Amino acid sequence: MNRDTGFPVADAENDFLRARRRQVLSRLAAWLRRQPDDVNIMLPFDEVVAALSRTGERRLGLQVITLDSIVGSVDRQREFDRRFRPTSGQVRERWQRLALAQRRGESIPPIEVYRVGDMHFVVDGHHRVSVAHALGLKTIDAYVTEVMTRLSPGGIRYRGDLLVKDYRRIFLDRVPLIGEARRAVSLTDPWDYAELAESVEAWGFRLMQDEGRHLDRPTVAQRWYDEEFVPVVRMLRQAGMIETQTEAEAYMWVACERYRLIRTHRWDDDVITAVREGKRR
């Protein structure tokens, strides 16, 4: 709990020291808990929009946003941590000036942010966000610009999550699924997207050989989903072979086992039985 002395200058100095102490303790706690290295690192805006594929933007004007929704920065990732606590004493002078102004009730200009999904990234106003957090505020005024992306930003919490999004974006370039098919094919390991893309392309090559004609990527993607993925997933569900993994993960594992055990690309009940028996062994 903050204990004010009644002297704004001294209180602003104490505000900064508390924020620095909390940053150090948070970093130590993450290390002791063996949490990922990026748990206390704010998200870099450029990497997020690159992973999600930026499609456009629109200005939304002045809004009130929650401080907890601010998770990253355009260019100040090293000066503050994920909760906008100072990572060194270099920002102290400016930080304390803003804290003093806030304590004296002076007018503080709105910050500027980009919005991606329900996340906000600071363009201008990092120190103001940091001071607001330190003083226990819940909201802040901000000029908001919304950034639209090709992929949904859902599921992004830490920097490491961007790798999955980036590989998914590349996968969808190679296998341009749309609609329900796009939503249904989901993986948690980024490298699985590369392996699945190769599998779909090989399936498409065999299809074109069988039909003796060229098919573009969108056609191959949709036919793979309708003629391969959906029927196989249905069989796997009937056989009780989809447990905690996603449908796409179950499909990939069984497809690899099928070929390893039987050396065939066909699907039928005998194949599923053989794969299931192989799993039990």
Note the topology:
Layout: H1 8-32, E1 43-44, H2 45-52, E2 54-66, E3 70-73, H3 92-103, E4 111-116, E5 119-124, H4 126-134, E6 139-149, H5 161-174, H6 179-184, H7 190-211, H8 217-238, H9 247-262, H10 269-280
Parallel strand pairs: 1-3, 3-5, 4-6
Antiparallel strand pairs: 2-6, 4-5
Protein name: Chromosome partitioning protein ParB
Organism: Actinophytocola algeriensis
- Percent of residues in helices comes to 40-55%
Number of helical runs? 10
Query: What series of H and E elements makes up the topology?
Result: HEHEEHEEHEHHHHHH
CATH superfamily of the largest domain: Conserved hypothetical protein from pyrococcus furiosus pfu- 392566-001, ParB domain
Mean pLDDT: 82
* Alpha carbon gap, first and last residue: 59 Å
**Widest sheet, order of strands:** 1-3-5-4-6-2
Question: Which residues form runs of ≥5 with pLDDT under 50?
Answer: 35-39
Structure commentary:
The chain is an alpha/beta fold and 281 residues long. It has 2 domains: 8-149, Conserved hypothetical protein from pyrococcus furiosus pfu- 392566-001, ParB domain (Alpha-Beta Complex), CATH 3.90.1530.10; 161-280, no CATH class. It contains 10 helices and 6 strands; from the N terminus they run H-E-H-E-E-H-E-E-H-E-H-H-H-H-H-H. A 6-stranded mixed β-sheet has the order 1-3-5-4-6-2, with helices on both faces. Strand 4 (111-116) and strand 5 (119-124) form a beta hairpin. Helix 3 (92-103) crosses helix 4 (126-134) and helix 9 crosses helix 10 (269-280). It starts with 7 loop residues before the first helix and ends with a helix. The model is unreliable at 35-39 (pLDDT under 50). It comes from Actinophytocola algeriensis. This is Chromosome partitioning protein ParB.
